[in-house]
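Need the bound structure for pyridoxal-5'-phosphate, inputs here:
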Amino acid sequence: MNNFDKELKELKQKHSYRQIPEIEEKSGEYVIIDDKKLLNLSSNDYLNISTNEDLAKEFMQFVADSPLSQFSSASARLLSGTSTVYRDLEKVLAKLFKKEAALIFNTGYQCNLGVISTVARKGDIIFSDKLNHASIIDGMKLSEADFRRYKHLDYEHLEELLKKYRKKYDKALIVSESIFSMDGDIADIRKLVELKKKYNAILMIDEAHAFCSIDDNMAGMSEGLDVDIITATFGKALGSFGAFAVSNKTIINYLINKARSFIFSTSIPPINIAWTKWLLTEKKDFILKQKHKLSTLVIGAHKYLVSSDIDTISESQIIPVVIGDDERTVKIAENLRSLGYFILPIRPPTVPPNSSRLRLSLTANMDFESIKVLINNIKDEV
Ligand code: PLP
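Answer from helper R.:
Posting the output first, comments after.
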């Protein structure tokens, strides 16, 4: 048996083996699997935009017979130019975030990889929250900078590390998510701004789960704060695909010239860029309405969890219920599926060892009564 087989067998024995779940249909807040309709609590489509057929139809009419309806860009932007719609979307983003400039990347993964490995180089240091996303970790590894990980949301620990290491390096980069993808808790961005100023560092915030979700408007949780670089993805609340960084003109021009994940990859198809721009401009009121529905649901769900004595660290639409043991987490997720809920068990290495969990993502179209019934069912299971 080769090593691949051996490793896969070990994963199976540890209940950590992953398979891509097959979904017959996604429809609003539901999925159909094996002919069964399940409430989908495993989606990042927080505003239920990606499965909204009326929106899709309206957009297809909007782009019909225009060059925007092309399904391939056929090259990287630097190689054969960029169509106007990319620039237009970048202008919309820069304005939304009140920054000088924006740059679209193909995915949030490529964006974090590109930004971090370009801004921080050999001789620099990166300080990263311990629970930051894999794309941030991989960006740090690629950067060749030294990095130190501070305990999750522990800014005293971050300051200790800054005091100890900052002076020895040229540039310093502090990186954090705003809403954390697996815990649903929220960084203290004001505190991070204070520390970056005190220790002369660059502050980067990944707003992947906050952009267009439950932030006050649509510009993430860093809005109005002195954050140097903001990254986010279109693939979650906005129901589209792709990602972006916003910053000052110098950093954006530097990324255009140096970020390899931007330079050496075919750009997103024009039709998709047009969809993202259309949503952010023509459908702003719809987004705000869905966001309001989601925020109301989140507040209600959190109160109900407290009154049901279920512990969660969540402050957002992402609600983890930590079970700990991998096998038990898988079993509970299976039981909940038989009761009509699609909740994927999240296991290491996505989360730290012994913190396997059910990760519930609330989406705007869910109704509060169903969430209460779900919480009652979880209480019976855990
Ligand atoms: N950053 C965070 C915090 C994420 O949770 C994700 C999840 O996918 C990404 C970045 C990557 O974004 P994308 O899916 O667009 O690659």
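Comments: DSSP finds 14 helices and 14 strands in the chain. The mean pLDDT is 94.
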